[in-house]
Design a protein that fits this description.
It comes from Macrostomum lignano. By secondary structure, this protein is mainly beta. Helices cover 9% and strands 41% of the residues.
């Protein structure tokens, strides 16, 4: 690989030349280590760029700049063609018996030659003896053009796809020099170390898993746009697991899921079911669910516990919540410590002092016509 430059000078002198050029086969994606220190209510995000390149040369002690811009997509909206609706023609179809081309590229060819060249991988010389209708060739041309445009847009969109929809374009200057060998492997460069002050929340759905999960509500007070990407989660220097961070612009609030906290003990008792007397034409079934939880930490915490209640989809099925009381008639209010959500789940906000335990009780009745059998199905909402 060499560059030839012709210089002309009126007198003897010394000069220094700097070359700037564009290469392909290089990409990057974001990755994070999130370290949470619960006693200090602090969070540290180590922001990495995973750089890989196969450009044909090693980048030694390079000043690296990472960007989410996509020059391959272009800066303007692509033009639309007019779609015309008409009756199918009954005229005889014209055929092309052979197409011969040579030399130049596809862009200057006629539509027929261009369609043939697309299908043969862009070869410079081609010869076809098979008879083909002209409209089929033109249709193949349009399909191949659309396929190529889609493929190019997909390749150009690889980087931005990791960036999230609310961050249009951003650029990072890596603060120190790095060497990235030409091996196609991912190499980690540090973009920034960000200190944040989270608000911790606990959430539990004991019917699905008897654990309290720690969640952090954080405002991105840094000047860095956080792109969507995989994260390693550490809480008090213990590896918790892996998660995905959603995109967050500067000053935007986001949430981090930090895994199960085994310092909060949860016990989900078997549900008690009983058939009551009811009327002669109806059957009444009572249900009781007990949930026990205990805080073994040396500090007070608040846990949101969520338990679903069957929602009837038949008018003849009646569901009445007995305990906690008054939930059937109250409107949903997030500020209330006990509430019934729109998805028909009872939500408790439970405050636990250090070492304290509490018991939550849910009781409800289901009334249905005698002789009918209940069947439960599960949906997302």
């Amino acid at each position: 690989r060499e560059v030839s430059v012709v210089l002309e000078s009126q007198e003897a002198t010394q000069l220094e030349l700097h070359f700037s050029y564009v290469v392909s086969r290089a990409r990057w994606s974001p990755k994070y280590d999130i370290r949470v220190f619960s006693n200090e209510s602090a969070m540290k995000i180590i922001y990495y760029g995973m750089v890989q390149q196969n450009t044909g040369e090693d980048w030694e002690n390079a000043q690296i700049s990472l960007s989410t811009s996509m020059p391959g997509v272009g800066g303007t909206v692509p033009p639309l063609t007019v779609q015309k609706a008409h009756f199918k023609s009954n005229k005889p179809v014209s055929f092309v018996s052979s197409v011969v081309g040579g030399g130049g590229g596809v862009s200057g060819s006629s539509p027929v030659r261009r369609a043939q060249s697309m299908r043969t991988g862009g070869s410079s010389t081609l010869r076809k003896s098979k008879h083909m209708p002209v409209d089929e060739i033109l249709a193949a041309e349009a399909a191949d053009d659309a396929s190529m445009a889609s493929e190019q847009a997909g390749r150009a969109g690889d980087t931005l796809r990791s960036g999230g929809s609310n961050i249009q374009s951003t650029q990072f200057e890596v603060p120190r020099l790095f060497t990235i060998p030409c091996d196609g492997e991912e190499h980690k460069v540090t973009i920034a170390i960000i200190d944040l002050c989270p608000t911790f929340e606990y959430e539990s759905v004991p019917q699905r898993a008897p654990y309290a999960y720690l969640k952090a509500a954080v405002t991105n007070t840094s000047n860095y746009a956080l792109l969507a990407g995989p994260t390693n989660i550490y809480v008090d220097n213990n590896f918790i697991g892996k998660s995905e961070l959603k995109a967050a612009a500067p000053s935007e609030e986001f949430h981090c899921h930090l895994g199960a906290d085994h310092g909060i003990k949860m016990s989900y008792k078997p549900m008690y079911k009983k058939r009551e007397g009811g009327q002669s034409k109806t059957a009444l079934f009572s249900h009781k669910q007990v949930i026990e939880l205990r805080n073994t930490h040396q500090k007070p915490i608040r846990v949101q516990v969520i338990e679903p209640v069957p929602r009837p989809i038949e008018d003849k099925i009646k569901v009445n919540i007995v305990e906690p009381p008054k939930l059937n008639s109250e409107k949903y209010d997030k500020q209330k410590p006990i509430r019934l959500s729109k998805s028909h789940c009872v939500e408790w906000d439970v405050d636990l002092d250090a070492g304290e335990g509490k018991e939550l009780v849910l009781r409800y009745n289901i009334e249905l016509p005698a002789g009918e059998t209940l069947e439960y199905t599960v949906s997302e909402n």
